[in-house]
Amino acid sequence: MHRKNPSSPQHRVDIKHVHDLNERTKELNCLYSAFRLLGATDDTPLEKTLQEVVDLLPSGWQYPKIACARLIIGDKEYRSERYVQSNWLLTADIVQTKEKAGSVEIAYAEMRPECFKGPFLEEEVFLLEAIGKLIGQFLQRKTLEEEKTRFFLDVQKKYEKILSGFIPICASCKSIRDEDGVWQRLETYVHKQTGATFSHGICPACIKKLYPHFEKR
User: Fold this and answer.
1) How many whole angstroms separate alpha carbon 90 and alpha carbon 67?
2) Could you tell me if 136 and 96 are in contact, meaning their C-beta atoms sit under 8 angstroms apart?
3) Is the pLDDT of residue 41 over 60?
C-alpha cells in the first residue's frame, strides 16, 4: 500500500485543508449557537442570554483553550471564564438603532503566530462582526418588546381607572365630571384618559327614530 510522504508538498496541502475545514466548522457552530441563543422567544432573562453568548464565543476561535471573551453593553459587562486583559485583542461594535450600544471582544491570553489581524484569522474577524450584529438585533428586539409591554400596561391602568370606581355622569347629556370637577363630553374624557379616538355614526334604532322617512325607503 502506497503511503504519502509526510514531507511531500501534497501531504502538507492535505493537512492544511483538514485544518481549514475544522476551523470553518468551529466558526459555523459558534455562529449557529449564538443565533439560536439570541433568537429564542422564551422568557430567558436578557442578562442570562448575554452571559451564555459570552461563554460560547471562545469555542469558535482557533485557540479556544487560551481564548476569552467580554461583552460591554452600556455600563454592564459580561466576561467569560478565565478572562484576562490582553494585547492580543479583537473587537467588534454592537449597534442598536444606528447608534453604538457597546462592543464584543475576543482575546488570547498568550501570543500566537501572526495571521490576518494579529493572531486572528480573516474568518474570525467576520465571525465576531456577525455576532456583534446579532447582539445588536437582539437588544433592539428586547427594547421593542419592553416598550410594547409598558404601553399595554399603561393603557390597561387607564382603562381600569375609567371603568372602575364611581364616575359622575350627567343623566341628561351624558357629560362626565373629572377629578378636577370639570364637566366634559364623554368622548373628550375617554380620549384624555386613554388616547382613544371616537368615530361617530348612527345606529339603526336611532335612524328609525330620527329619520323615519329613510327607514320607509
Assistant:
1) 11
2) yes
3) yes
Name the pTM for this structure.
0.67
Over 80: is that where the pLDDT of 139 sits? Answer: yes
The H or E element that residue 123 is part of is helix 122-163
Whole-angstrom distance, CA of residue 153 vs CA of residue 156: 5
One-letter amino acid for residue 217 of the chain? R
pLDDT 10s digits, 117-126? 999 999 999 9
Q: Is the pLDDT of residue 7 over 70?
A: no
On whether the CB atoms of residues 54 and 60 are closer than 8 A, the answer is no
Residue 74 near residue 101 (C-beta atoms within 8 A): yes
129: its cell numbers = 462582526
Q: How many CA atoms lie within 13 A of 214 on its CB side?
A: 9
φ/ψ of 162, rounded to 5, equals -75, -45
Strands 88-96 and 76-79 turn out to be unpaired
Average pLDDT over residues 177-184: 85
11 vs 41, higher pLDDT: 41
Question: Who contacts 128 (Cβ-Cβ below 8 Å, separation ≥6)?
Answer: 90, 91, 92, 104, 105, 106
From the number of C-beta atoms within 10 Å of its C-beta (0-12, 13-18, 19+), residue 195 rates as: exposed
Contact by Cβ (8 Å): 186, 193:
no
Those residues whose C-beta lies under 8 Å from the C-beta of residue 198, and which sit 6 or more positions away, are: 187, 190, 191
The span from the CA of 122 to the CA of 114, in Å, is: 11
Rounded to 10 deg, the angle between the 122-163 and 46-56 helix axes is 170
